[in-house]
Specification:
alpha+beta, Cytochrome Bc1 Complex, Chain D, domain 2, 2 domains, five-stranded mixed beta sheet, 12 strands, 36% helix, elongated, binds heme C, binds copper (II) ion
Length: 317
């Protein structure tokens, strides 16, 4: 798959337009601040060149206000850009609470996507038009970086960690997605597509893509198959803490530290249970790092999150 090199990628979200505006304005500012320096340098280099009989007596007059102004005005302009870009940065880091979550697992050399419905895709991700979408991303091997030029978003995808991106595409179409972190031999073909569809087309696609038990459903199956339920089953709290409604709760660790349970905490609890042992329990949980791939871990996490109102181990056990 090869696409022509675009100097100005298409704009597929309001955020992308704001990024372009910021860059264009910053470009103009830098040009305005540096142009006088280079123009005067050129003029004076010619005027005072060797052999030219020019008046070389040092100037006597000093204009304090002129000197103050050329320090203060650029400073204020730059601070303006600082606040402008910081506001955009914070916005880009804060997905709306109701965003549609799609999981991403990167590996040499492909992109895997998991939808909450259970639908799975490789190197292609369908998203609805005009809805906030949050990507929870991790890598199965080395560091990758998910980059969608048309949305002006890019974020490193790291092993052992969940990173996030969010966007709200407002123009239907198919947009390239690339890996922006050199990740080995076939890095250059680690290319995918973001397919932005109108709500009804998206719904049709989702129905056709199937659910395969649903993401949380697959997590539930794993929960039983791996024996998690034998320790964390409903009503059993002597051996292991209850996992019902654990997401978003604050847990006290044996070290005395209190942590809020998020995706990363759940992941670490499964892969490296002895890293953060819950207060009041013996560290008897076996590590599942070697047993599970990242997609399965995400399924388990989805299950534990979905059990906000239910009891993990209760349903279907
Ligand atoms: C042999 C019993 C046992 C099995 C099997 C087991 N766990 Fe645990 N689990 C524990 C114990 C004990 C703790 C608390 C101590 C700790 O944090 O290591 C715990 C802690 C946790 C926590 C953190 C809970 C908190 O309150 O902080 C999560 C999440 C978790 N387990 C998920 C799982 C999942 C998912 C599986 C299956 C893949 C599983 N466990 C299998 C015993 C078990
Ligand atoms: Cu890569």
């Amino acid at each position: 798959m090869s696409a022509p090199i675009l100097l100005w990628p298409p704009i597929a979200s309001a955020y992308a337009g704001r990024v372009d505006l910021l860059i264009a304005c910053f470009g103009v500012l830098v040009a305005l601040l540096s142009a006088p320096v280079f123009i005067l340098m050129a003029i004076w280099a010619v005027r005072y060149r060797k052999g030219r009989r020019a008046d070389r007596t040092p100037g006597q007059d000093r204009n304090v206000w002129l000197e103050v102004s050329w320090s203060v005005i650029p400073f204020l302009l730059i601070m303006g850009f600082f606040f402008w870009s910081t506001a955009m940065f914070l916005d880009a880091r804060t997905p709306p609470a109701d965003a549609l979550v799609i999981n991403v697992v990167a590996k040499q050399w492909m992109w895997k996507f998991q939808h909450a419905s259970g639908a799975r895709e490789i190197n292609e991700v369908h998203v609805p038009l005009g809805r906030a979408v949050r990507l929870t991303m991790t890598s199965q091997d080395v560091i990758h970086s998910l980059y969608v030029p048309a949305l002006r978003i890019k974020q490193d995808v790291l092993p052992e960690r969940y990173t996030q991106l969010w966007f709200n595409a407002d123009r239907p179409g198919t947009y390239p997605l690339r890996c922006a972190e050199y990740c080995g031999t076939d890095h250059s073909v680690m290319i995918g597509r973001v397919i932005v569809q109108r709500e009804e087309d998206y719904a049709r696609w989702l129905a056709r893509a199937g659910t395969d038990g649903g993401l949380a459903g697959r997590g539930q199956t794993l929960f039983h198959r791996l024996g998690c339920s034998s320790c964390h089953g409903a009503g059993v709290t002597e051996r292991a803490p209850s996992l019902a409604g654990i997401y978003g709760r604050t847990v006290t660790l044996a070290s005395g530290r209190a942590v809020r349970v998020d995706d990363q905490y759940l992941r670490d609890s499964i892969i490296l249970p002895n890293k953060d042992v819950t207060a009041g329990y013996a560290p008897i949980m076996p590590p599942y790092g070697g047993v599970l791939d990242e997609e399965q871990v995400l399924e388990l996490v989805a299950y534990l999150k979905s059990s906000r109102n239910g009891e993990p181990g209760e349903r279907g056990s």
